[in-house]
Structure formats: structure tokens, C-alpha cells
Design goal:
heterodimer; A: about 300 residues; alpha/beta; 4-stranded antiparallel sheet; 14 strands; about 35% helix; about 30% strand; B: about 325 residues; mainly alpha; about 80% helix; about 0% strand; globular
């Protein structure tokens, strides 16, 4: 277990990988809680895809330890069917039909006959490709190909699923449907999602990790990172900001004002009877009472803002 | 999982190999490049038969002219007699370059000998075009990643190898049928039954002889990223090994017993050293040739696997 917590689906310690002169991973540390939907966030070249590729055994790390579902490193014999992935930019053979691809993968996962058929049908139905089951993969659009890639990743009952940019290339409707599909898997399996769409990850993930230049730079529960449970932000329209009234109403809370964005930020310590919803209602009541014009209100800071602060 | 009892590691590996083999065979038979190559090999069978019939026809016409006898309408009247002549024996001996194999072949219809020789000579080219991309294509497209999440690299490679081997057997079989059909149309007095039996008997030997070339193509495929690269590697490998074979047989290079032993050893790593011993009757020559085929196959495939196991994909 390499000292990994038993509840961790994936633990990475000091992972290093170099491609020639480029060091893609520089001692990356990461712990993914079991059963979570986990977002891996980082700019291009941060090392997200390399981390996935090492976790799946496609690349050999130069140094470091990796624990997957309690197994030390990627051992296909022990992880087949338990770990699946949708690698980025990996193409499926164009001549085979969608169902045939899934039946092949199911057979390699140890599913045969009716069980394999059922799993393939279910996976195709989940990504909305049941009507294209008999179509050769080469006839699929880019978005459909992505969905077929997701279908193979959800085949059977994997415990850990790695999805590299899953909504990349999907139209808004299918991207939305995919997010809903992934949300339905919450608690049933661990999903690790790498994406540049931070709004999407904020909606979907329980935990995130920010990586930059091959190293971990921050992360944790989305609730804590964005401060959704302890920060209220209100954007005001033109006019004076009634900061004094707010400070008087929230004595212990920290009230700050950002002139350029015209945003009031109230940071408080949550407690019994003092949840984010209660504080939000109270802040709005005070502001409206003082005649302030409100443009927007939200709980916490956006993931995007935290990402920009950290990277 | 279905809840069934888990197979042993060897059982699971064997099952994965079969799964990959089946998928590889089906996928290959739907791939335009592979189908075209097989059709080309099939056409080769027809062209060889036509060429052989033309040769026989010209020889018979020349003989008729010399003897001032009327020429036959169709070629092939002299074929049965030809195989009993010393000249034919000399031709067979010079072609297969193996006395034991030559003696065995003399008893067979000439068509069988011609087909076996041509199929063995041209199978490496079919392998080069059909099989070089088996792994390299998937490495290039990264499609290999979908499979390797679910099965080991060894099982994956062996499954692909078996799939391509079956494909080769199908191609040789189809080519044989084309060869036979065209010969039947163009030649008279064709001993069809004897020819079919002879071709069926040699079919697995032709495939056995092609095994090292297939393994060499796979070695190239495991190193490359895409079909063209694999083809180039495989072609360079075949040419390089042929040069090694020529050098190893060059007496001028053999200075002393150590150099000679090294050259002999190097020669045993080249497929050109195989000759046509697998066409010999079951016995010493055949067994030695078959063992050499298997040794070379294991050498190339094993070297490729050792590199592929460590390769970043």
C-alpha cells in the first residue's frame, strides 16, 4: 500500500517523468479519495495526461510510487475490469462496429456471452449511441467517437475510471448529458476527470487537485477550495457600497470590498444556525435595506479564480 | 464480473490471446490495405499459374517443332512425363537447394512444386505489407491503450501474431485455389486430385516457413509508430539479415575457427538460412528446418516483446 490511506483510490508520491529534456512530472504527489469525483486541473503541459498514462501503465515513471485501488503500480492482471480509462486522442479501429468494440473490451475484462452483451448495450445506452451500435467506428463523428470512448470506460463495473478531457469536442447538449451521466455514477465508483472546463468541474467534482509544471500546487474538497461554505460574494451595481452597515451586522465576519469588480466579500465562520444560506440571506437583507443595487450573488470563489491564483 | 470462477493466470492469458486473435482476424479482413494485399497475393497465384502454363506451352511447341510433330491445342500434355526426366530433377534440385527436399518433391506433380516454391518466396512480401502495421498502427493511433488497460502486452502481441498467422494461412490457401483453378483451365491432363492433395499437404509447411518473416515484421511493428515506419524497419531488417547471411557464407571472411563459429552463429539468426528444408519428408532435414523456423520466430518475437514491454506507448 506504500503508506497510502486504505480509502484512497489512487495515491501518487514523488512521481517523476522526463521526455528528453522536458520534465513532464517533477515529484508529483496526489491522493484521490475512493468514491469521489475528482478533478485534475492544470494548464496545458502541466502533466495531467502524463499522470493518467502512468496510472494506466502506458508510460513508465522515472521515479516515484503509485498505488491504484490498493495495488502497488499498474498490474493489469489485478486491475483488469477494475480500472478503466478514456485516454486523450486515442482512436478506435474504424472498421469494427461500435458494439463489436465494446464486446471485445468486455471479453478482455472477463465478461462473456449474455453478460458482455448486457454490459455493451448498457454502456451504449448511457452515452446515447444505441442507435449506432451496428455502425463502423469510422462512420462516427468526432463527438460520437468521444462518446464511444466514454462508453468503453464505463463498461462493466469499474471501481476507478480515468477520463481525460471527456467533454472535449462534444456539443453543448451531449456535454451536459455526459455531466449528468457522470454525476449519476457518484458514490458507485471513483471518477478522475481532467478538464480545462473549470465551471464543469466545479459543478461535478467533490475534490480537485491543481497541478502546474508537473507538481502539485494545491487542492482538496471543492467546498473548501471555493469557500462555498464560508464566503459570500455579492456584486453591486452603481452607487455607494454600504460596508459600514454590513460590518455592523456581521461583527466577527471579515467584510472586504474590491472596487474594480464592485464585489463585497463576507468571510464567516460557519456554525450551527449559521450556514452559508443563512448568511447569504442576511447579507442580501442588509444590502437591500441600505438601498444597494445587486448585480449578482454567489457562495464562495469560483474554481477558475482559485486556479488563476494558484498557477 | 459474472461471478463465475476466476480462471488461472495461464487460463486467463490464453483466453485473452484467443480474444485478441479473433478481433485481429476480423478487423484485418475488413481493412482495405489487408484485403488488397490478399487479393494481390491471390492474383499472384493466378499469374504464376498462367506463367507456368505459358512456359510449358512454349517448351512443348518447341519440342513439337524439333520433332516435326503437330503441336497440342492446350499445354500440359508432357507434364506427367516431365517429372520423370533427369532434367526436371536437376531443376528441382537447383531451385530448392536441398537434396532431401528435392527427392521428395520429384514424386509430386510439378504444379505443387512450383506453387510451394513461389508461395514461400513471395510470402515475405505479403507479410511485409499485411502484418507490419498490426501493432505499429495501433501504437500510432494510440488505440493500443484501450486494449492494454485490459490485457498484458505479451497476450496482446501473441494474440495479434496468431491473428496475422491465420490471415497468412487464408491468403496462402486462397492463392493456392487461384493457382489451381487457372492451371485447370490452361493445362490438359492435370492430375487434379494429386495436385490438390499435394498443395494441401504443403500448405502448413509454407506457413511454417513464413513464421520467421512474420515474427520479423512483428519485431518491426513493435518498434515503430505507424505502418510506413514498420514496413521500412521490416524491409531494412530483411535486407540486413540477407546481407548477414551472404557475408556468413563468404569463405574469404572465414579467418580461423572463432570467426567461422561467429559467422555460423550469425547465420543462424537470419531467415535466409532456412532454405526449403520444410518441404523435405518428415525426418532429419524437415525437423532441423522446422526447429530453425521456430527458433528464428522465437528470437525475433522474443526480442520485440522484450523491447515492447519496456516501451512508452
Amino acid at each position: 500500500m506504500s503508506g497510502a490511506a486504505p480509502e484512497a483510490a489512487l495515491t501518487v508520491r514523488g512521481l517523476r517523468k522526463r521526455f528528453g529534456r522536458f520534465e513532464a512530472l517533477r515529484g508529483l504527489d496526489l491522493t484521490v479519495p475512493r468514491g469521489s469525483i475528482f478533478g485534475l486541473i492544470g494548464p496545458n503541459g502541466a502533466g495531467k495526461t502524463t499522470t493518467f498514462a502512468i496510472a494506466c501503465g502506458f508510460l513508465r515513471p522515472d521515479a516515484g510510487e503509485l498505488t491504484l485501488l490498493g495495488e502497488s503500480g499498474f498490474v493489469v492482471r489485478r486491475l483488469k475490469g477494475r480500472l478503466t480509462a478514456m485516454p486523450q486522442d486515442a482512436a478506435l479501429g474504424g472498421e469494427m462496429r461500435c458494439r463489436e468494440h465494446l464486446l471485445y473490451f468486455a471479453a478482455l475484462q472477463g465478461l462473456h456471452g449474455a453478460a458482455a452483451e448486457r454490459a455493451a448495450e448498457q454502456a451504449l445506452a448511457e452515452v446515447g449511441l444505441l442507435d449506432r451500435a451496428a455502425s463502423p467506428a469510422r462512420t462516427l463523428s468526432h463527438g460520437m467517437m468521444r462518446r464511444l470512448g466514454i462508453a468503453q470506460a464505463l463498461l462493466g463495473s469499474p471501481e476507478l475510471v480515468l477520463l481525460d478531457e471527456p467533454t472535449n469536442g462534444l456539443d453543448p447538449r451531449h456535454a451536459h448529458e455526459l455531466r449528468e451521466l457522470l454525476a449519476r455514477h457518484r458514490g458507485q465508483r471513483t471518477l478522475i476527470i481532467s478538464s480545462h472546463n473549470l465551471v464543469e468541474l466545479e459543478q461535478l467534482c467533490d475534490h480537485v487537485a491543481f497541478i502546474d509544471q508537473g507538481a502539485y500546487v494545491g487542492g482538496g474538497a471543492v467546498e473548501a477550495i471555493t469557500g462555498r461554505g464560508e464566503v459570500i460574494e455579492v456584486v453591486l451595481g452603481e452607487g455607494a457600497a454600504p460596508l459600514a452597515a454590513l460590518r455592523a451586522a456581521f461583527g466577527e465576519a471579515e467584510v472586504t470590498w474590491a472596487e474594480e469588480t464592485r464585489t463585497v466579500r463576507v468571510r464567516f465562520v460557519p456554525g450551527p444556525g449559521r450556514q452559508a444560506e443563512d448568511v447569504m440571506s442576511e447579507v442580501l437583507r442588509v444590502l437591500l435595506g441600505e438601498g444597494a443595487r445587486i448585480s449578482a450573488a454567489r457562495r464562495g470563489t469560483s474554481l477558475e479564480k482559485r486556479f488563476l491564483e494558484l498557477t | 464480473m459474472s461471478g463465475a470462477a476466476q480462471p488461472s493466470p495461464i487460463g486467463a492469458a490464453w483466453r485473452d490471446i484467443r480474444t485478441v486473435t479473433r478481433f485481429e482476424l476480423i478487423e484485418s479482413l475488413r481493412t482495405r490495405r489487408v484485403v488488397l494485399s490478399i487479393l494481390l497475393f491471390l492474383a499472384c497465384g493466378a499469374v504464376w499459374a498462367w506463367g507456368f502454363a505459358r512456359l510449358v506451352d512454349q517448351a512443348e511447341r518447341a519440342a513439337a517443332e524439333v520433332l516435326a510433330a503437330p503441336a497440342t491445342q492446350k499445354a500440359g500434355a508432357s507434364l506427367d512425363r516431365l517429372r520423370r526426366t533427369p532434367m526436371y530433377r536437376e531443376i528441382v534440385k537447383s531451385v530448392v537447394d536441398d537434396p532431401e527436399a528435392a527427392t521428395s518433391l520429384e514424386a509430386l506433380p510439378p504444379l505443387v512444386v512450383v506453387f510451394a516454391w513461389l508461395a514461400m518466396s513471395f510470402a515475405p512480401f505479403l507479410i511485409l505489407f499485411c502484418s507490419s502495421g498490426a501493432i505499429a498502427d495501433e501504437v500510432g493511433s494510440r488505440g493500443v491503450r484501450y486494449s492494454l488497460l485490459r490485457t498484458g502486452r505479451t497476450e496482446y502481441v501473441l494474440g495479434k501474431f496468431c491473428g496475422q498467422l491465420l490471415l497468412l494461412a487464408v491468403a496462402v490457401g486462397l492463392s493456392g485455389i487461384a493457382f489451381l483453378v487457372v492451371s485447370w483451365f490452361l493445362l490438359v491432363n492435370l492430375p487434379v486430385g494429386e495436385t490438390v492433395l499435394g498443395m494441401v499437404r504443403f500448405w502448413p509447411y509454407v506457413v511454417l516457413h513464413a513464421l520467421p518473416y512474420l515474427a520479423l515484421a512483428f519485431l518491426a511493428s513493435m518498434l515503430a509508430r505507424g505502418w510506413i515506419g514498420a514496413c521500412v524497419y521490416a524491409a531494412l531488417g530483411m535486407i540486413g539479415l540477407w546481407i548477414v547471411h551472404l557475408l556468413a557464407r563468404w569463405e574469404w571472411l572465414r579467418h580461423g575457427p572463432i570467426v567461422s563459429a561467429l559467422l555460423d552463429l550469425a547465420d543462424y539468426a537470419t531467415p535466409s538460412t532456412l532454405g526449403y528444408g520444410v518441404l523435405a519428408p518428415l525426418g532429419g532435414t524437415f525437423l532441423r528446418s522446422a526447429a530453425l523456423c521456430l527458433w528464428l520466430t522465437a528470437l525475433y518475437l522474443g526480442s520485440g516483446l522484450a523491447l515492447f514491454q519496456r516501451r512508452d506507448l
